[in-house]
Structures are given as structure tokens and as C-alpha cells.
Amino acid sequence: MYVFKFTAEIAVLEISASKYFINAIKIENPEEKLNGGINGKRPNRGDITPLLSGNDYCRLPHIYRLICLLGDYFSGKIVDFGDIPVDFSSYSDFTGKMLGALRNVKYGKTCSYKELAISAGYGKKYSRACAAAMSANKTPIIIPCHRIIYSTGKPGGYSGGGGVHFKTALLSLERN
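Above: the chain's sequence. Below: its structure in C-alpha cell form.
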């Protein structure tokens, strides 16, 4: 298992990866970052705290690709994380299907829990179960659960780290 930290303007991401997959992203200190940065520093493209050596980045191209995409993402560029391999092995079939369907919600777009349940092949009655599946997401941002909102247009909850304030910050970043 490899672990590294990626520092962006609005959060610090602790990323766990295996030789083949991204396993988890833990969002650290988003409240502090959203309120002016850490120690007044606001990096543009993202700083990397390497817990990996330079050779690891060469041997693990999915990690290098993720770092590049995260830098672009937090700089406000449109990116697609769809080719980043994510480990789905710990999810139930239902959650895996929901998170797989979620990967199709593109940058700057949102959809409701009901719409996502329908797009994953379930009926509109599965919207609450869809919300529960979103809360199990271990790789927020790559699997963009922040793009799923209530049918009323309100943001809904966010268990990816940082709560609803961080969710609305990500949505705002994608709108601009």
C-alpha cells in the first residue's frame, strides 16, 4: 500500500493506493482550508507531500496520472477521472453499480439521487438506497459523489469529508 498527501487550495487529500488501484481518498482539514488556507499559503496547482519516492511515480502510472489530474482539477480545469482505476472489491454489488454509474456524471453537471438510481438500472424508489451508497464512497472526487444533489436542487449531504460546505465548494469550483 502506498500513501501520499496532495495539498490543494481547499483541502489536503490523503490518498491510499495499491500497485494497480486507488483505494481511498481521505479529505483532511477542509474547514481550515476553506477559511483562508493553512498558514496563509494557498497553492495553485497543488503540492504533493511525497510518502513515495520518485521511482514509485514512474512504476505506478495511475498515481502519477491522478496527481496530474488533481492539479488540473483544483486549478479549475475540466478533467475526467474516468480512467483512474479504483478498487471496487469492498463494495456490495448495489453500491458498486451506483458508484460505477456515478462515474458517468461529468464535470460541472449534477443529478439527483433518483436520477442516478434510474441510470444505474434501478427504479426511482431506490433514491434513498442510492444516498446510502454514496456515503460508502471511499474515493471522493474521483468518484464524484459531490455531484449528486436532491431533486429540489439543494446540495444534500456529503460524507466524503468536510460536509456540505466542502461539497458546495467542489460544485462551485466546477461551475466557474
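The chain is about 35% helix and 15% strand.
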